[in-house]
Design goal:
single chain, mainly beta, Maltoporin, Chain A, 22-stranded antiparallel barrel, 5-stranded mixed β-sheet, 6 helices, 34 strands, 7% helix, 51% strand
Length: 736
Amino acid sequence: MSQGAPAAGGSTRLPEIQVTAPRHPQKPRRPKTHVATHQHRQEPQEPQHRQKPQAPPPTEAAALAAKNSSLDMARDNIVAPTGAASYTLSQQAIASLPQGTNTTLDKVLLQAPGVTQDSAAGGDFHVRNEHGNLQYRINGIALPDGVGGFGQIFDTALIGNMSLLTGALPAQYGLRTAGVIDIQTRNDAFNNSGSVSVYGGSRGTITPSFEYGGTAGQTQYFVSGRYFGSDLGLENPTSARNAIHDHTDQEKGFLYLSTVLDPTSRLTFISGVSNGSYQIPNNPGQTPAFTAYGVSNFDSSQLDQRQHQFNQFNVLAYQKSVDDIDYQISYFNRTSALHFTPDAIGDIVFNGVASDVYRRSIVNGIQEDTAWRIGYAHTLRFGFTASAENSLVNNTSTVLPLDGAGDPFDAPFTVLDSSAKTGWLFGTYLQDEWKINSQWTLNAGLRFDQMEQYISANQLSPRVSLTWKPFEGTTFHAGYARNFTPPPQVLAAPVNLALVQNTTQQPSVTTNDPVLPERSHVFDVGVIQKIYAIPGLEVGLDAYYKKAKDLLDDGQFGAAYVLTAFNYERAENAGVEFKATYTNGNFRAYGNVAWGKQIATNVVSNQYLFSADDLAYIAGHYVYTDHSQLWTASAGASYLWRGTRYSGSVIFGSGLRADGADGTPNGSHVPSYTQVNLGVSHDFNIVSATKPTTLRFDVVNLFDTVYQIRNGSGIGVFAPQYGPRRGFYAGITQKF
C-alpha cells in the first residue's frame, strides 16, 4: 500500500519509519588476526537478589586452545595461497578411505586430481606429470627441502586436513613448485588421549602403531610411532601374487610440540624419523651375460640385493603477532642416507657390474616469513630462506676388464668414485595481496633465488595472480609464475668416467655435462563452483601450461635402486583437471579426471646415461617424459549407517610411458588399468562410549586386476613393476 494509506478495515495511519545515515560514517576495518590482551572494565553490579548466575571460567586447556586458534589464524595469514589451485582432504575424508589412517600419504594423494602413481619405494608419485619437485609444510612451517620418502615418514593419523596446492604459486613458494603439500594437524590431537592399533593381512603385512597427544600448561604435544613389516616392500617385477625376496621392515616416528609463550607468540618444534630396510625383489628366468669368479650360470631368483634408507628432520619455529604484523622464523635440519648393497657375484653375471652405492645428505637452514596488513586493501608479504647442504656420494663398483678386442674376461676388480660437496641455496621474495574490492583480489610479487652447488646460478622470478568472486559460491583464478628449480644436490653429483674406461661399465657416450637448474613459465586458470541446486555439491575445472628450459628429470639407470638427474633442453607440460565433491549428511563422494601431457627434447646433461641412438633421436624429436600419463582419474564414496562405515575407492591410469615397438624412446605406454578398493569399519563401545574400539576390514584390488606400472623399458626405467594383487586386511584400534 502507499505510504500513509489506512489499513484495511480502519483509518489508523501507520507510523513513518525514517532511516538516516550517521553523520560521520566509518570505514570498515579489517579484523586483526593477532591475539591481544583485553582491558578489564568494572561492570555495574546488580542487587544481590537479582544477580544472574555466572558462567564457569574457561578451563586452562580451553583457554590455551583459544590462544592457539588465534595464532593459527595469524599463521594462515602469513602463508595464504592466494591465486593457487587447491584440493583439500580432511581427516574425516582420509579416515573414510579403505584402510583408513593406515593408508600411506602417497596413496591418499592419489585421490587428488592429476596425481599419478609410480614406484612405492619412497612413496613416489607424480603431480601434473612432474617428477618430484614437491615441498611439504606442517602448520605453515616449511620442512627441509629434499627429505626422501615423505610418504613413509608421515602417519596420516596426524592430519587434520591436507591441501595440495598447484598452478601458478605466489612468490613465497620457491624452489619446489610442482606442488605444495600443506598439512594441518588435527584439532583434537591435544586432548590428553591416544590410541593403539594393530593392522595387517595379506603377504605377511603387519603394522602396529600408537599415537598420543595432550596439553600440559601452555604446551601442546603429539607423538606417534608405527612399525610396518611386509613381504611386499617394493613392486613385484612379475605378475605373480607373491614377490620373491621382497621383505621390508620400516620404523617411523613423529613428534610435535607447541608452547604459547604469551598471548601473541609461540614456539613450535617438529621432528620426524623414518628407518627402512628393503630386499630388492627378484625376477626369475633372466639370462646371464658375463662370467665372474668362475660363475657363468646364476639363478636370478636367488639374487640378494638390499637397500637401507634413513631420513630424519627437525624444525624449530618461533611465531609472533604484533599489531598488523605477523611473522614466523624457523631453523631446520635434515639428515638423509641411502645404502644399496648389490649381490657381489650375481650382479656382475647379469649386468657386468656390482655397484655398492652410499649417499648421505645433511642440510641446515633458516626461513623467515612476514605478513604486514597495510590498511584494509593491502597485505604485504616478504621473507627469505637460506640453507647449506653437505652431501657425500660413494659408488664402489666391481667390474670386469675388457681385452684388446673389447670382450670382457673374468678378472673382477673394484673402483671407487666419490664426490663430496657443501652447497648453498638462498631465496627471498616480496609480494602484495591487493583486495581491489569484495570481488577482485590481485596478488603480485617478485622472487629471487641463488644456488651455489655443483654449478652457480640465479634467477629473478615475477609472479602474478588474479582471483574473481562474482557471486557467492563461485571463484575464478588465473595466474602466471616464473619458476627456478635447482636439482637435488645428491642427484646431481658428477661421476668420473675415466675410472671405468675399458671395463664392462664403460658407457657408449662419454659426454657428461653438469646438471642444470630448471627455468620455467607456468600459466594456470581455473574455476570452482558450488551447485546450489544440489546442496553439498562442488565442482572445479583447472587448466595449465608450462614451458620449461633445462627441464629436470631423473631415472634408475642401473641395478642399484637409486636415481640420477639429467636435463632436457626444452619441454612443454599441459593439462586440464576436473574435480567434484559431494557431501550430504553421512554420505560423501568425490571424483576427479585429469588429462595431461609432458614432452621434451635434447638431453643436455649426464648424456653418458643414454645410448648413442637414443641420444640422437631425442636431440631431433620431442619425446614423452617417462612419468607422463595421458589420463588419470580417481573416485570414491563412503557412507556411515548405524555406526558402520562403508567405503570404496577407484584409481585409473592410462599407463606410464614405455619404449615403442620400433625402439622409439618412450614411444608407447603400458596398458591402462583400474584398481578398486573396498573397506568397512565399525566402532564398538567395549571400554566406554568415549573410548571406542574400532574394527575394520579392507580389500585392496577387489577384482585382482593384473596390471603393470612399468614394463622395464623407457628412459630411466630399469625393471618391470606390477601393481598389488588382491589383498585382505583387518585391524583393531583402541582409543584411551
